[in-house]
Amino acid sequence: MRLPRSAYLPQRTTPSPSPPLASLPFLLSFTAALFTQHAFTAHEDSITHEDHNHPRLNGAFEVDGGHDLEIYEPEFAGADRSIIGRAGEVIPALGNNAPGIQNIDQSASQYWTFPSTTLFGPNSPQTPGLPSYFEGQNVSVTPDAPGEIELYISLTTCQQPLAKAPNPTGSPDQLKLYVSKSSSNQQPNENNNDYIVLVDGGFGWLNISVKDDVYFGVYAPANEGYDGVYNYQLTASIDGFYASSYSDPNVYFVDSDTNSALLYTKNTTSTMNSTNSTFQQWMSRPPVFTLFVQNPDNPSILGLQNSVCGLQNLAQIQGLPNVETVMTAAGDGLPKQQFYVKNLNGSSTYYAIAAMIGNSTDFGSGVVGGGGTVWNSANIMTKSC
Q1: Residue of 333, 332, 327, 324 whose CA lies nearest to 283
Q2: Which of 145, 158, 227, 354 counts the highest number of beta carbons within 10 A?
């Protein structure tokens, strides 16, 4: 029986719950070298996440029977073009943990398949694990059913159309993902599908048991008042989710002054013994998490707040020199990651979104968990000037 393997799983398999962080005074005791973060932009009043436990292309057009719209059929290097769809079109095939990356115009549909040869093919290589499970990490394993394979599907939006008017308050509609398990329906759409995947904040997911080719339809809605295209990553994996999103925050506001703030992640282990090997491994390794910070007055990430690539592309504040980070055991004596955010405005509120780039030890195509993880936002409040 094959079990899906997650590359960000720890080397030890016993979870260690950690106590919540205490309220701590503002402090800046950095004990290791500072590491670079990744940047971000705007947000909505309340950014929420669904609880997800969990090659560029060129080509020709055809008519989409589901929406009666012109659609884009991609052609790209490296795609398996042996899958023939309706009316003789070739449907590009996804590889295991290898995202199909594509721009899509509004009112257009694009189609993909995950062939059975890949479904029953080899797993992706494992990467080194973390020293232990960390608080807030929720890893689930679904055994394969007899004669079937559990397939993990994720759709991540990296770019979306931009508002024509200045100072927009909303965001364009989300992409739609339709899934078919039938060779008689190789171009699933709104009216003919086996599954509809909900996309929220630029991220959608589904895991299903399958035993044959699987087909996908990505549809980009029309948005009045918005110009431009969507860009997305569609990934299927027999190992585990390529990308993830969690509904709980993984970072907490500790203290601030008029133009900077201190935040901690949840504890990465429950052991307080500094001679313990797990404690030492966490304290000596590079920081695992990155931080995106956004002023709610800037809505640039609204609609992409659950997407690592969306945040990387658009978040206001990320990385040096504005975000410094280090592992620390300050406060309660337990390992955690510390963020020091600078150049903020006084008397202001910001959203802080913790994320993991890839699976913490590797990222990108071919890597289990290579699309990264996003947690829900926490608030930062700076003091009055």
Answers
A1: 327
A2: 354
Is the distance from CB of 206 to CB of 200 less than 8 angstroms? no
Residue 175: how many other CB atoms lie within 10 Å: 22
Look at strands 162-163 and 214-220 and give their pairing.
unpaired
Query: Positive or negative, the Cα torsion across 323, 327, 328, 329?
Result: positive
pTM: 0.76
Cβ neighbour number for residue 247 with a 10 Å cutoff: 13
SS3 at position 284: helix
Number of C-beta neighbours around residue 279 at 10 A:
22
Where residue 131 falls among pLDDT bands split at 50, 70, 90? confident
Contact (Cβ atoms closer than 8 angstroms) between residue 207 and residue 152: yes
Between CA 169 and CA 163 the distance in angstroms is 9
pLDDT (tens digit per residue) in 347-367: 999 999 999 999 988 999 999
> CB under 8 Å, gap of 24 or more: what pairs does 86-90 form?
86/186, 86/187, 87/62, 89/62
31 closest CA partner among 342, 336, 383, 359 = 336
For Cα atoms 44, 382, 252, give the angle at the middle one, nearest 5 degrees. 70
Torsion of CA 235, 239, 242, 245, to 10 degrees: 120
